[in-house]
Amino acid sequence: MAAAVGPASSPDAVAATIGADGKEDDRPRKIAVIGVHGVGEHVAGATAASIVQQLQFTQGNAYPHFDETAFEIPVDTTGLGIDGGPAPPPAKRRRLAAGFGSVFLSRAYSDAGTPDFPTDIAFTKSLLEGGGNYREVYASTRWSGEKLGPDGSKAASVDVFEMYWSDLSHGGGIFAVFTQFAQLLIHLASLGRTAAAFMAAANPAWKKFYSLNAIGYWIFSMPIVIGNLWFVVLGGVFATSILQDIKGTIGTALFGAELAFAVGYGLLQWLKNHHWRSNLAALATALAGMAGALAWWIELVQFGLTPVMLLAVLPLAGAGYALTRLYEKFRPGAVRLWGIFGVVLLVAAVGIGLRSGEPGYLQSITSSNATMLKAKFSIADLRAVTSLWHVLEFLFCVIGLLWIVLAVVNLLLVLVGMFRAQKPDWSTVFTCMVAALLPAPLFLGAVLSFWTLVYYSFCSFLPPIAIAPWLHIAATGPQVAKLVSGLIDNSAGPTFVPYLVTFALGFVLILVGLLPSVLAELFPPLPAAAPLAEPLGPGPARALQAWLDAGYVSLRAGVVIIASGALVLLPIGWILGSLPIERVGVLKYLPSQQFVELFGLAFSGGAVGFLAATKLFANSFSGFFRRARVVIDTAIDVDNWLRERPEGDTLRLRAFARYHSLLRHLADRGYDDLIVVAHSQGTVITADLFRYLTVGGIGFPDGLPSVRLLTMGCPLLQLYDWRFPVVYGWAGQDGQAGADPGTLGVARWVNAYGSGDYVGRALWNGPVAGAAEFCIGAEAHTHYLDPNNLCIGDCIDGLIG
After folding, report:
1. Is the pLDDT assigned to residue 149 strictly greater than 80?
2. Terminal-residue alpha carbon distance, the chain
3. Residue 66: DSSP 8-state
């Protein structure tokens, strides 16, 4: 191993540690280089091509040419220590609660005691379990060239490979925009439960805190989400049944969309599973679509609205069931909960329907809708419409009650965390509370946006049917359109605008803290011509570093303000909005219904539009859009990397299988040295795999040469260790100076960072054997492999030797 080199070393000392080990023979060495890209979506092969460009730009005479060759390797889990096939599904009586807790905590830390290996290795083993049958084919390219010595003779042959994993974490196409949007709104909250599970694994005294986190996340991700999906189904039935003038068009579109969805879904499932049972959901959806078309035909020939509603619910419920089946992969028990909601709503509908036949009830309907009776609708039609509206009110109450319960659980979570946490635990407790409090109001905003968009799209087509609501709805009249608008206002509550003020204040604090780094990301300065060693001297790099250090304080303050608003203001608003009281004093000035609706349109259009633009144009316009969504991609990739479901098909399993298969491929080719060049999340994937192979006792593939590692913008300390210290404490807090390269099984570890990198910067605070790092200047996070970054090109060349 190289001599100890710490962060305070000079650039010359850093350079001296990154050269290759000497060889006793004079034959040209055979070098393999693996490039591992970072967060976000990348083009396959781009990272390897960037490394080649770096070498030729900085050391052009030494690397005259490279040839690109396509290759394929089979991918499996051989050598990863994974036993058995996929995990069996939970028993039916437990399936509703199967997605309640942490898979890791239930597997590795049962009543039998704790495992003999560190927590991070136990967590990795849990994520890999059940994936023994995973198979794929990895198609990639190899750049083959040679390095010339000073005299022009061949010093080494160099093959550059790529460990591409973006396709495993990010879906493709426009539909991925909506799945990522849903992930940010729903699944990101699971990071709190995961962090709490780590704490409970390390210290059983935190199990109650973990239970509160798990309960809150289950309420949010299961009954609240499923209840809102049922509300979309019944709301769609209600709206499409009474829309005037455009029924025929909507009926045709509905039938066509349902049939196309059913055929596509069925074909996809058959290609995936080759089993007739996989087509049952698609068949049911296709039949439901035909029933929907039949319903519109019945309505058009004037058979009334009741059969229309009964048949129109089938295609919408079929689509909802299909979405729930997909959701079941990540939330076991979702389908059963969908069925429970369906049964409860059916019982409510029957009860309300029976009550609607009472003389007094019919009298109230006919007296308030005399004009509509003369125009088109019959008493049976109005009775059906009114009954369905009351079913929607019942479901609205159930969802509102769930939100109140979630608020109570989150309040208990915060109280337990604040009174129990000691200094070593505070960072994890903060992670748990933020993950529990932030996604829920964002989800509420998305729901408001959706219904506002629907309302403004179809309100002009709604007939003026008058309904006497059972709930206290802030509406200006009994007509359907006004009641719908009032229900949107009730969902927000009278304290929604004050919450938006706190959200805006917190967002400004976050933006101020990160603004210089964001500007450096979007408009990168020229990189340093030579490595800068700590401590940084006066200049732009030092100024940006100082601003970002202070910016993290501002960021935490902004997050606390936003989370506090979600914890206090929103629940108060929901309670006040549900009470039959007039708004007096300051309350009457709080939200304007029009303001809430305009916010909904702005939120939905802005958020979905931004995600769509950055998704579709990620690699266009000089990468501007890709850089603009680095924070979002970081959240998505961190969430995916720690995700515990689907069991036996996690991102960590698939990435490890591909990476390890590539290592086995290189071991068979007989290289003398291996250099891994990893950026951002790619450094975490590399470190977790290498540490699993080393500390977990698995071992690297036989025949693999010694490994030298270059990491850039590495988030192991600044993100993972700060937020998940129980699992990633080995990267910083557990040691006196920082991560030990020996625990990764690498001969040398060099870390490069930009002083304004908000994802990852310095890793060590003192001398560590085999480690060195340097600063590339006032850079942010995405420009390490730009062709003009001389520091990185020189470092890679030095590692090649």
Report:
1. yes
2. 15
3. E
Cβ neighbours for 677, distance < 8 A, ≥ 6 positions apart: 33, 34, 35, 36, 51, 710, 712, 796
Strand ordering across the sheet containing 136-148: 66-75, 136-148, 154-163, 29-36, 673-679, 707-712, 748-753, 771-775
Extended strands (E) in 173-287: none
Does residue 506 contact residue 558 with C-beta atoms inside 8 Å?
yes
Q: Which residue has the tokens 């029933």?
A: 291
Share of the chain above pLDDT 70, in %: 69
pTM (2 decimals)? 0.84
- What whole-number distance in Å separates Cα of residue 287 and Cα of residue 258? 9
Distance of CA 47 to the CA centre of its chain: 23
CA–CA distance, 355 with 192 (Å, rounded to integer): 45
Place of tokens 């080199």: 5
CB 507 within 8 A of CB 752: no
For 581, the 3-state DSSP assignment is coil
Q: What is the mean pLDDT of residues 85-94?
A: 57
Lowest-confidence pick of 5-14, 298-307, 478-487, 777-786: 5-14
Which of 18-27, 274-283, 561-570, 705-714 is modeled with the greatest confidence?
A: 705-714
Tokens matching residue 49: 């091509």
Across 264-271, average pLDDT: 57
**CA-CA distances (angstroms) from residue 356 to 368, 381, 383, 467, 484?**
15, 12, 7, 12, 21
Burial class of residue 135 (count of CB atoms within 10 Å of its CB; 0-12, 13-18, 19+): exposed
More confident residue, 633 or 739: 739
pLDDT for residue 656: 96
Residue 405 host element (H or E): helix 379-420
- As a whole number of angstroms, the distance between CA 480 and CA 284 comes to 32
Helices (H), 274-333: 280-300, 305-328
Cis peptide before 571 (omega within 30 of 0): no
Q: Which of 83-87, 275-279, 596-600 has the highest mean pLDDT?
A: 83-87
CA–CA gap between residue 261 and residue 255 (Å, rounded): 10
Q: What average pLDDT score do residues 502-517 get?
A: 84
Give Cβ neighbours of residue 455 (< 8 Å, ≥ 6 apart).
481, 484, 485, 488, 597
Residue 359, Cβ density class (10 Å: 0-12 exposed, 13-18 middle, ≥19 buried): exposed
Q: What is Dmax (Cα atoms) for the chain?
A: 104
Tokens of 341: 């909601």
- DSSP E strand boundaries for 82-128: none
Q: Is 111 exposed, middle or buried (0-12, 13-18, 19+ CB in 10 A)?
A: exposed
Chain-centre distance of CA 409, in angstroms?
A: 23
Question: Do 216 and 439 contact (CB within 8 A), yes or no?
Answer: no
Sign of the four-CA dihedral 357, 362, 365, 370: positive
What CA–CA distance (Å, rounded) separates 466 from 473? 14
Exposed / middle / buried, residue 57 (Cβ in 10 Å: 0-12, 13-18, 19+): middle
Task: Please tell me the distance from the alpha carbon of residue 383 to that of residue 392, in angstroms, as a whole number.
Answer: 14
| Listed residue (645, 648, 695) closest to 82, CA to CA | 648
